[in-house]
Amino acid sequence: VTTVGRARRTGPRPRHDAPLRRTTGRIITLLTDFGGRDAYVGIMKGVALGICPTATLVDLTHELPAQAVRAGALLLRSSVEYFPDGTVHLAVVDPGVGSARAAIVVTTPRAFLVGPDNGLLAPAAARLGVRSVHRLSNESFFRSPVSATFHGRDVFAPVAAHLAAGTPPEAFGDALATLEPLDLPEPVIEPADIRGEVLYVDRFGNLVTNIPAEALSAFRGSEVFVRIAAMSPLSLTHTYADAAPGAPLAVIGSWSMLEIAVRDGSAAEHFGAGIGTPVTVAGR
Amino acid sequence: VTTVGRARRTGPRPRHDAPLRRTTGRIITLLTDFGGRDAYVGIMKGVALGICPTATLVDLTHELPAQAVRAGALLLRSSVEYFPDGTVHLAVVDPGVGSARAAIVVTTPRAFLVGPDNGLLAPAAARLGVRSVHRLSNESFFRSPVSATFHGRDVFAPVAAHLAAGTPPEAFGDALATLEPLDLPEPVIEPADIRGEVLYVDRFGNLVTNIPAEALSAFRGSEVFVRIAAMSPLSLTHTYADAAPGAPLAVIGSWSMLEIAVRDGSAAEHFGAGIGTPVTVAGR
Amino acid sequence: VTTVGRARRTGPRPRHDAPLRRTTGRIITLLTDFGGRDAYVGIMKGVALGICPTATLVDLTHELPAQAVRAGALLLRSSVEYFPDGTVHLAVVDPGVGSARAAIVVTTPRAFLVGPDNGLLAPAAARLGVRSVHRLSNESFFRSPVSATFHGRDVFAPVAAHLAAGTPPEAFGDALATLEPLDLPEPVIEPADIRGEVLYVDRFGNLVTNIPAEALSAFRGSEVFVRIAAMSPLSLTHTYADAAPGAPLAVIGSWSMLEIAVRDGSAAEHFGAGIGTPVTVAGR
Predict the structure, then answer these.
(1) Per-residue pLDDT for B74 more than 50?
(2) Do residues C14 and B48 make contact, with C-beta atoms less than 8 angstroms apart?
(3) With 80 as the cut, is the pLDDT of residue B220 above it?
(4) A196-210, B85-99, C161-175 — which is least confidently predicted?
């Protein structure tokens, strides 16, 4: 029985970071390139709920382009800090299923990350901090027999569910010293300017760059100009609503990165830009 | 512990409107134009579950065309009566994020509506009846800092979760006298005929009009003809199955509105019709 | 209160088929052709949660082509064995809504299947084994009034939720002797070769055939060749990773059927193949 919603509160209002006590199981998030057309994701959920019936399942996305490890890694990194402690993040973008690539669980102070060791988990792991990495080799936690083509169902979903149910990560296999990194382009930050590029294009056509908000603080006090695709420079504005409808703008977006957008439109279309398009920032 | 499924029932069968006692938290529905490609919706859910772990999250849709406030408002209105009392409906279609538009919670006898005050909530609020409207201004309920571009994550999801956890709506800010209305085209209802238009086109190509079932009762007893796009008039039929495959028909649809459909096909394609296409109804 | 995650385990590790005790309600899966653009699926969930608030709702898919009974039936069959005992599978692909087709619940040893009696449930029922079939005729379990066009909301979701809450299947109406079958093409299995066809194409372009893994055991010991679309024969390989990127391969896929794939690509595009394309298998 939960008392949520009945507790009398007489002191100061709780902030968002003071969660009520959970009476349900842990959260398992799912991120895949399986799409919504087939039943692959539902099948993984059935397997997980068979093992941990009280888990709360949350989809991050399943609409990644097929085998887009980098896009998946970026979306996972952009999501993990918004989930409560103890969440299990299950990610499967796995072009190498059936090959020798390892299957792993990464333990961080706040969350577990489960998936193939192909770089998919690395940016999220780096953001949260890595405590340990274990190879998934203890087959007693897998479905039996393990298929050659669907480790999401037979390996990753069972392991995520057992983690959610309290099995410690060392039970799944030997510790690994490292996990596979993911090559992400780093911005070049110099006193006079910053040279970065577009990292991700979202469904609105917003261009998320690899230039973090902190890097722009060097220009504090002077006006900042952002240049993309040989167009006139944009000033940095506070929010979408600061531009006229149809006008482009540069803004610190929800990833805490420099983002180039078009008010009520698509910056990807407006600039003919996409992943890898160079973006530079300079003060006056 | 729940006794669902174990209770012996000896009296009359319960009707759908006699729900079993909830042992979980309230329902939070989500309706956005964020799409399924990115992780924005999953992030909102992570924030909400961090505050109200026992909430049950239900997606209404996230596939609205970008910034389609009207389509979102219509879908929300078409949904709210089917959820149990106490549901929190969270809706974010927010072209004005970061501008001066208010963020609000609308309290109705059966549900809470949370979102931007841009007309999105108005039709659902009118259908359920408005008890009060409060501006979301108490920042102690928001994520901190509040981003300029993603109030779904930083303002609306936290507030919806606190509502689901029992925080009363007046805790979030001052009462407002009104909420922003949404201009929806009203049908012209006269003794001889009704002149309306297409309000919404669903994924099957069914044309939902703005002519309510009640308006057709004026013609009770005489045959009713429905005319769209200068085509031969259609008789009103009871159900899709009353037409031959590929044939058009007019029917009272699931929105309790006059709907024009094609059996096993798309009326939008058949008639070259869309939002705003005129539809007239007349008796013989 | 659940003790999930706290139990000390000192014996052998539990296998996936030893689920922890549920403290939440049963699972209801949903499979429809309603798509994600409208709110039809969310509305069904609202109705179900109003009746069985502790149900856990899992989407199989809603992105079936409109009225694709066969694709729905195949996906349902491919999913049911992966859910825990007692799951209620709710499936609505219903071109005959409002016609005389029956609405039914199929009781199997492991699960309930709820939907229209148009073949949609038949393959899953055959896979699980049929104990009984009941017609849904007891209107006290329906929403009132029942619309002519949306039985998913008014008939199937309420019945699924009452099943999840413990109502026995015989409460919903009279027993039926049979359910409508679905015509699926059967492979021709002869000593020298097997002649089958493509049954389903998934989002990756993988071609799932109607040739079961067991049928290939006849060729055990000799090399097996798979031929599709007048192309050079493929050898049977163990997994996707056994082929070079861009190369086609034949594999036993996750449906335990012969599947033709292209490593990191689409076999449907590579071979210009689709549902019904012939596939033959022969030994050397």
Answers:
(1) yes
(2) no
(3) no
(4) B85-99
d(CA B159, CA A281): 36
Residue A27 parent element (H or E): strand A27-32
Torsions phi, psi for B83 (to 5 deg): -105, 150
Contact in structure between C260 and C277 (CB atoms under 8 Å): no
pLDDT at C25: 67
CB contact under 8 A, C240 and A49: no
For B1, the token pair is: 């512990």
- Give the one of C34, C97, C165 whose C-beta lies nearest to B5's C-beta: C165
| Cα distance from N-terminal residue to C-terminal residue, chain A | 61
Tokens, residue C138: 């007891």
CB of B63 within 8 Å of a chain C CB? The answer is: yes
Closest listed residue to residue B73, CA positions, set B126, B120, B130, B115: B120
DSSP code, position B96:
T
Q: What does the alpha-carbon distance between residue C237 and residue B153 come to, in Å, rounded to a whole number?
A: 46
For strand A188-189 and strand A132-135, is the pairing parallel, antiparallel, or unpaired? unpaired
Nearest to C281 by CA among C213, C221, C209, C227: C227
Helix axes B40-51, A69-79, angle to 10 degrees: 30
Beta strands in B14-118 (DSSP E): 27-32, 56-61, 87-92, 103-107, 111-116
CA distance A115 to A159: 9
**Is residue C273 classed as helix, strand or coil in its secondary structure?**
coil
Distance CA C119, CA C179 (A): 8
Query: String of b and e for B80-112 (b: at least 16 CB within 10 Å)?
Result: bebbbebbbbbbbbbbbbbeebbbbbbbbeebb
Q: Is A277 on the interface with B (CB under 8 A)?
A: no
Amino acid A273: pLDDT: 94
CB-CB contact of A70 with A85 (8 Å): no
**Residues β-bridged to residue C88:** C28, C112
Res. B3: pLDDT tops 80: no
> Among all residues of chain A, which has the CA nearest to that of C32?
A37
Distance CA C236, CA C226 (A): 7
* ipTM attached to this prediction: 0.90
Whole-model pTM?
0.90
Q: Report strand pairing: C111-116 vs C103-107.
A: antiparallel
As given in the structure block, the two tokens for residue C2 are: 């659940």
In angstroms, the CA A118 to CA A103 distance is: 9
> Which residue is listed with tokens 């000799």?
C222
The pLDDT of residue B19 is above 70: no
**Cα-Cα-Cα-Cα dihedral sign, residues A5, A7, A10, A15:** negative
Q: Rounded to whole angstroms, how far apart are CA atoms A200 and C186?
A: 46
Is A253 in contact with B25 (Cβ distance < 8 A)? Answer: no
Phi, psi of A124 (to 5 degrees): -65, -40
B43 vs A: CB within 8 A: yes
A240 touches chain B (CB under 8 A): yes
pLDDT score for C23: 42
Contact C93, C33 (CB under 8 A): yes
List the single best residue of C16, C75, C249 to mutate versus A (max A Cβ within 10 A): C16
Structure tokens at C32: 């429809």
Rg of chain C, C-alpha, whole Å: 21
- Distance, in Å, from the CA atom of C284 to the CA atom of C282, rounded to the nearest integer, reads 7
For chain B, say whether C200 makes contact (Cβ under 8 Å).
no
- Rounded to whole angstroms, what are the CA distances from B262 to A176, B226, C92? 60, 14, 19
Q: Which residues of chain C register pLDDT less than 50? A: 1-23
| CB contact at 8 A, C169 and C132 | yes
3-state helix, strand, coil in chain B (%, to 5): 25, 25, 50
Nearest CA-CA partner of A26 in A105, A104, A107, A111: A111
* pLDDT for position A28: 98
Distances (CA, A) of B20 to B213, C28, C49, C165: 32, 16, 9, 8
